Amino acid sequence: MQAYSSLFTILNQAIDQQQVSLGKAKPQEMYEPMSYILGLGGKRVRPLLTLVGCDLFDANPKEAIHAALAVELFHNFSLIHDDILDNAPLRRGNTTVHEKWNHNIALLSGDGMMVKAFEVLAKSNKVHVPQLLNLFSKTGLEVCEGQQYDMNFETQDNVSVENYIHMITYKTAVLLGCSLQMGAICAGASEHSQQHLYEFGKHVGIAFQILDDVLDVYANDEKFGKQVGGDIISNKKTFMLLDAFELANEAQTKELNNLLFSKEISNSEKVKQVTALYNTLGVKELAIEEANKHTDIALKHLEELEANTAKKNSLKEFALHLLNREV
Amino acid sequence: MQAYSSLFTILNQAIDQQQVSLGKAKPQEMYEPMSYILGLGGKRVRPLLTLVGCDLFDANPKEAIHAALAVELFHNFSLIHDDILDNAPLRRGNTTVHEKWNHNIALLSGDGMMVKAFEVLAKSNKVHVPQLLNLFSKTGLEVCEGQQYDMNFETQDNVSVENYIHMITYKTAVLLGCSLQMGAICAGASEHSQQHLYEFGKHVGIAFQILDDVLDVYANDEKFGKQVGGDIISNKKTFMLLDAFELANEAQTKELNNLLFSKEISNSEKVKQVTALYNTLGVKELAIEEANKHTDIALKHLEELEANTAKKNSLKEFALHLLNREV
User: Fold this and answer.
1) Could you tell me if B97 and B105 are in contact, meaning their C-beta atoms sit under 8 angstroms apart?
2) Contact B119 A130 (CB under 8 A)
3) What gap in Å lies between CA A212 and CA A173, rounded to an integer?
4) For A250-270, what is the mean pLDDT?
């Protein structure tokens, strides 16, 4: 995104600096993994949104740099701990912290990284700290709750599409809303604009996650960068799977259950047959429809807020760019 | 402590209320363990100190109630995660969270409890939130660092007494200093008084931890409430053990190493012989001397700060009561 290249420059410089200082901090055993995971890159969308949220109201984006760093540190803490919870070997194509070091190191450096996020947030302009802390801690708690709901789903039989939307809202979407609103807070934007910006980010986040699940099944293998069908293989309760169960007739329900729990079917055959059932039931289209619904809600909120029109258009364009990933 | 009974009433009411509300919160899997560990009691010294720190400057102690709760929540988060790290089966005589539920639940509810601490802190008077957040997050990071140093000591050969003091300062003492200072911040005390109060709490904490190690060896079994000699059995690098290595002659060093690493000696014999060597070297007295040194430093800081003399005396009495545990 050309419009955000100068914001990205500011952001990357700050994150790189943070990474270097974490890499030097003692005790090394606790700080080195923080530096390591920050260095794995990622798209850095969340902290960028914080700077965007500040710039949107014509304030100097550097006013929001501590909040942006806090968001990125928090997000990376959650990755370290989620990877322990999921027993994941890889993160962004690299060894996860608990695999590269061990579980205790990953637990404690994750803890430290979360506290570090709050420590960095405290460096923001004092006028804004109370509201920033309020929003950031509330959101952090919701992210943990979302992670817990996601874990619960693994062994829960009666998960509804509504439960799923609630889970991804907490696990993923609220942090996008929070990232943007923190920028707006740093810019001194009105409460009204802040709220609309938060809702914009939240609904973009919901749409993003639904489409991410669609991509997992329907993406072009090479462009996607990870194995297509991974969610199907692991029986992950995505929007499409839950919707499929809600729409399936008796025979289709039986077939779906067979596919999920049979130990005789190969992974590739499982992906192929579940996808075929998804096609019959039209759940891909329904998922895209649901994502579009949330995108529309997001854009309505964007319209409502009072900011520079050109900058609002850039943000709209950026969101659509994030969401338009060739499904 | 009679002087603090009304503060204890305020505190216990607030913690009990917090415990009930956590017990009702959803998702239950994440919040129930928080409620459980809060309900195990403990002495609640840290949050009491926050109310004391506020009361000391003649402010309404309720001004500091959110800060006090934040301290107790943070402390309990650290217990949940430390018990995972130490693979401990019991906490305050009850099953630890990871044993009662499982590792993933303990990890995530610990995370949630830490974020909750910050969320509760955010409810403090806005005027004080920036300074509270600054102190609390800095201290939280130090507590994590102290835990990491403690873990490092397990496999580290050349731990000095100085390293040990640094470790307990971070792992234990700074949170006591922080607890008191947060109360002072909520009371609007001067920076000068705040600093002296922090140093008072920190040095009381150091003295407390050194004496705790002495008690582990020399306490009256029944009064102590846990197995005497546990630190010796587990080769824990306490002040006395490190001091013993620093003072031992060649033969004594060899004997000590034999006692620590021999697989043929029974636990009770190990405790007996290591204690005998401690007695020969006089490390108990040296440890008490070191603790007294820190108590004296603490009391000098207490003298320096500007507050109601009667209340300063009560705090002095309370600290000496905490430290005077019949070694």
Assistant:
1) yes
2) no
3) 13
4) 94
HSE toward the beta carbon, residue A286, CA cutoff 13 A: 16
Cβ atoms within 10 Å, residue A303: 11
pLDDT band at B220 (very low <50, low <70, confident <90, very high): confident
Cα separation, A1 vs B243, in Å, equals 62
Residues of B in contact with A118 (CB under 8 A): 118, 133, 136-137, 140
Average pLDDT rounded to a whole number, residues B155-159? 92
Chain B residues at the A interface, defined by Cβ less than 8 Å, are 26-27, 29-30, 81, 84-85, 104, 107-108, 110-112, 114-116, 118-119, 121-122, 126, 129-130, 133-134, 136-138, 140-141, 144-145, 147-149, 151-152
Contact list, A114 vs chain B (CB under 8 Å): 111, 114-115
Q: Work out the minimum CA distance from A57 to partner chain B, whole angstroms.
A: 24
Are B81 and A145 a contacting pair at CB < 8 A?
Answer: no
Nearest to B81 by CA among A106, A36, A117, A133: A106
Helices (H), A122-247: 129-155, 161-168, 174-186, 191-218, 221-224, 230-233, 239-247
Q: What is the pLDDT of residue B327?
A: 46
* B91 closest CA partner among B104, B78, B103, B108: B78
Min CA distance, A153 vs chain B (Å)?
12
| Residues A98-125 pLDDT 10s | 999 999 999 999 999 999 999 999 999 9
Stronger pLDDT, A327 or B107, i.e. the higher one: B107
Q: Is B123 helix (H, G, I), strand (E, B) or coil?
A: coil
Regarding pTM above 0.90, the answer is yes
Q: What is the mean pLDDT of residues B155-166?
A: 95
Contact (CB<8Å) B137/A115: yes
pLDDT at B219: 84
**What is the DSSP pairing of strand B94-95 with strand A90-91?**
unpaired
Q: How far apart are the C-alpha atoms of A240 and A244, rounded to whole Å?
A: 6
Residue A95 φ then ψ, to 5° = -60, 135
Structure tokens at B253: 């060093």
How far apart (Å, rounded) are the C-alpha atoms in residues B42 and B105? 22
**Alpha helices in B56-158, H assignment, sequence order:** 65-86, 97-100, 103-121, 129-155
- How far apart are alpha carbons B327 and B309 in whole angstroms? 29
Pairing label, strands B90-91, A90-91: unpaired
The minimal CB distance from A118 to the residues B27, B133, B145 is found for B133
Please answer whether residues B37 and B80 qualify as being in contact, where contact means their C-beta atoms are separated by less than 8 angstroms.
Answer: yes
Burial class, A90, CB count within 10 angstroms (exposed 0-12 / middle 13-18 / buried 19+): exposed
A122/B145 touch (CB, cutoff 8 Å), yes or no: no
Residues of A within an 8 Å Cβ radius of B: 26-27, 29-30, 81, 84-85, 104, 107-108, 110-112, 114-116, 118-119, 121-122, 126, 129-130, 133-134, 136-138, 140-141, 144-145, 147-149, 151-152
- A94 has which bridge partners? A91
HSE-up (13 A, CA, CB side) for residue B90: 5
